[in-house]
Amino acid sequence: MIFGILKDIKDGENRVICTPVEVKSIVNAGHKVLVQRRAGVGAGFADEAYEKAGAQLCDTAEELWSTCDFVAKVKEIEPSEFKYLRKGLMIYCCIHPAGHPDEVQALLDSGCIAITAEDSHRYGSPNCEAAGKQGALFGLESMLSINGGKGKFVGGFAGAPGMNVLILGGGLVGQGALSVLHALGANVTVMDINIGLLRTLSDRYNSKINTMYCTKETIASVLPQTDMVLNCVKWPKQRKDFLIDKEMLKLMEPGSVLVDISNDDPGAIESSHETHHNDPRYVVNGVVHYCVSNIPGAVAQSTSVALASETLPMLLNIMNNGLTEACVRDGFIRRSLTAYEGKLTHEETSAIQNRPWIRPENILGIADRALDPAPPATTTRSDNFYK
């Protein structure tokens, strides 16, 4: 198989889907690897390192898209790339299909095969850990007086108390943020709807963090004493309500900070809208908002290494065994199949966009085989099947 590593072109994105180490593994498995020039430079991986690992460099994206059987990148397929989609091409990247109807339509119109990376990680995406940890640090940066924040130091000084921080969501993203903020001395409260998870986190931190059941009312009760909120909740896209609305922001002191790490559209924070690294902040009702959608791109080398190492087994499974057999062996690849030769195969996208879909195991003809199990990627269900 001819595998291509694309250069990501999203604003502020420096990550790369494979480092030279993974390229060497893929080449040693008998596959040809093409790499777009400068694909890894932003993450610290020179073109020469890819060549030394056995890859062939391509001067243009068009050359790579047109030559390869299978291409991969980190972030979404941008509108400028839609023209490269074609039947017979297989794509792996963070498509986020439910929130991007134009991208989904382009995939379906082209007849390509698309796999959405964010649903494919058996142990959770390294990007989630990175987003939580680095998002916490960007929140602290936003708290600085020079950035419009009220100038409170995370752990406090002698005679001056530290910050009160509220983390919404105790999953992988929230746990990453918690590990950084607790270590730096913040007084942290974690809210979630999973009492078992809250109990586990409390035990892990020897009851030195606060935990609360997450409702709009409990959030409102603590906002007047909260210096910084970090939203780490993956908000169901069909919901039209918010955990924090614009009026609730007035409960916080001017110069307080809200970091929307999840950055769903629509999401749990009414006042949130996507920003980029070159202009990351804005203010609503006195609260500084940091809403960069690709926070891990700021620590491109570490996130590229972590992401590439976890992604490699999935890519090799597909390349060595073919997509159908890979979907039998790995339920997380199967649940990530988004589009297959003009048919939608992603349940959440079907529900959110009111499109018909077909289950991956049915379109691949493997429903009667012993399949590796995987839980659904989201709680969103759809019975809107193709007739």
How would you characterize the overall build of this protein?
The structure is a single chain. The chain is α/β, with parallel strands linked by helices and 387 residues long. It folds into two domains: 2-119 and 299-363, Rossmann fold (3-Layer(aba) Sandwich); 126-293, NAD(P)-binding Rossmann-like Domain (Rossmann fold, 3-Layer(aba) Sandwich). The chain is 33% helix and 16% strand. The chain contains twelve helices and 15 strands. Strand 8, helix 7 (195-204) and strand 9 (210-213) form a beta-alpha-beta unit. Helix 5 crosses helix 6. The longest helix has 30 residues, at 300-329. The model has no long low-confidence stretch (mean pLDDT 96).
- Could you tell me the radius of gyration in angstroms? 22 Å
Beta strand %: 15-25%
Reported CATH architecture of the largest domain: 3-Layer(aba) Sandwich
Strand order of the largest sheet: 3-2-1-4-5-6-14-15
Shape: globular
Low-confidence stretches: none
- What name does CATH use for the topology of the largest domain? Rossmann fold
* Average pLDDT level: 96
Briefly note the structural class of the backbone: alpha/beta
> Count of DSSP E strands?
15
How do the helices and strands follow one another from N- to C-terminus? EHEHEHEEHEHEHEHEHEEEEHHEEHH
Give me the number of helical elements: 12
Number of domains: 2
CATH homologous superfamily of the largest domain? NAD(P)-binding Rossmann-like Domain
